Each structure stands twice: as C-alpha cells, then as structure tokens.
C-alpha cells in the first residue's frame, strides 16, 4: 500500500510495528519517485494531559525529489522542544555510546517532528543497528526514551 508523503502527525498514527517498512510513492508535484523507510517505536510515551494515551515515536528516512535525503523523527502527539532554532536529540544504536544529533524544526512550525541534520551518520549507523533508542526533550514531560526494535536499515532500498 502506498502512502502520500506528509509530515503531519497522522503519518503512521497508532501503528506500532517492529522493523522498517519500505515504500515508494510518486510525488504529485514533480511526478518523480519518493522512497521512504519508516518505523514506529515499540513503546509508547506516557505524557501528561493533553497528550495522554497511546503515543508512539516514528522514524522516517526518505529520498524526496524536491527536498532530497532526510531523516525525520516524530511523535503522534506532544511537543518536541525544538521551536525556532536547532536542538539536540540523543540516539543510541545497539549497545554503542549515545550520539548527539542536531535537529531542525519544520518550516511549518509544528512541534511534533524534527529533521536530523547529520543524515548520513544516522543512516550509516542504522544500517548496522538492531535496536535504536531516541531521547528527546518534550514540553513539560522531561526527556523520555523511545525504543525502536529493528532489522538493520537497507538504504537505499532494493527496488
């Protein structure tokens, strides 16, 4: 099943699964191919009101004809503290030491996703990882850890 490219929280909403899901879609504006690898966290965040309930994290690696290569981290609901300028998130691949990644907020100022800056470093580490942990500061909810159990990322995906 193909999904349209959207960065809204609705992408992958409520779908918790293990491993990377690979998809190809056609960008309606350019008519060119968009390739994505997506994954939802195996655990759910326990956030305070008004973000209570099931709330997974999501990773997306994508090659888009207009925007190029990108790595996006998002949550179903809540506010990632990365408002007007760059922020940092911690990522741990398997049993390695945590790595800091700078991230940028989206142009639309939504607060539930960020774009990792060092895409190549993330992708190279994810190609070897069977487990990814991400710790990010959430508005009024500290810095919870999301867990992603996975097979190593295959990038670019085999067509």
Task: Please give the structural blueprint.
Layout: E1 21-26, E2 33-44, E3 56-64, E4 68-75, E5 87-93, E6 99-104, E7 113-116, H1 119-126, E8 131-135, E9 145-149
Antiparallel strand pairs: 1-2, 2-3, 3-4, 4-7, 5-6, 5-8, 6-7, 8-9
Report on this structure:
5% of the residues lie in helices and 39% in strands. It has 159 residues and is mainly β. The N terminus is likely disordered.
Brief overview, please?
By secondary structure, the protein is mainly beta. The chain has one helix spanning 119-126, and strands spanning 21-26, 33-44, 56-64, 68-75, 87-93, 99-104, 113-116, 131-135, 145-149. The longest helix has 8 residues, at 119-126.
Total beta strand runs: 9
Strand content: 35-45%
Q: What is the chain-wise order of helices and strands?
A: EEEEEEEHEE
Helix content: under 10%
Which structural class best describes the helix and strand composition?
A: mainly beta
Taking the sheet with the most strands, its summary is: 9 strands, antiparallel
Q: Provide mean pLDDT, rounded.
A: 86
Tally of separate helices: 1
Distance between the termini: 15 Å
Low-confidence stretches: 1-17
Over all CA atoms, what is the radius of gyration? 15 Å
Shape: globular
Strand order of the largest sheet: 1-2-3-4-7-6-5-8-9
């Amino acid at each position: 099943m193909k999904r349209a490219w959207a960065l809204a929280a609705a992408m992958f909403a409520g779908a918790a699964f293990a491993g990377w899901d690979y998809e190809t879609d056609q960008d309606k504006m350019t008519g060119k191919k968009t390739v994505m690898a997506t994954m939802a966290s195996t655990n759910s965040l326990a956030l305070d009101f008004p973000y209570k309930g099931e709330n997974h994290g999501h990773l997306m690696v994508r090659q888009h004809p207009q925007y190029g290569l990108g790595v996006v981290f998002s949550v179903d609901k809540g506010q990632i503290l990365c408002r007007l300028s760059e922020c940092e998130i911690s990522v741990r691949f398997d049993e390695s030491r945590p790595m800091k990644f700078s991230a940028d907020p989206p142009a639309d100022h939504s607060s539930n996703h960020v774009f990792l800056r060092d895409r190549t470093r993330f992708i190279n580490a994810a190609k070897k990882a069977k487990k990814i942990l991400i710790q990010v500061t959430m508005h009024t909810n500290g810095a919870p850890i999301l867990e992603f159990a996975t097979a190593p990322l295959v990038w670019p995906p085999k067509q």
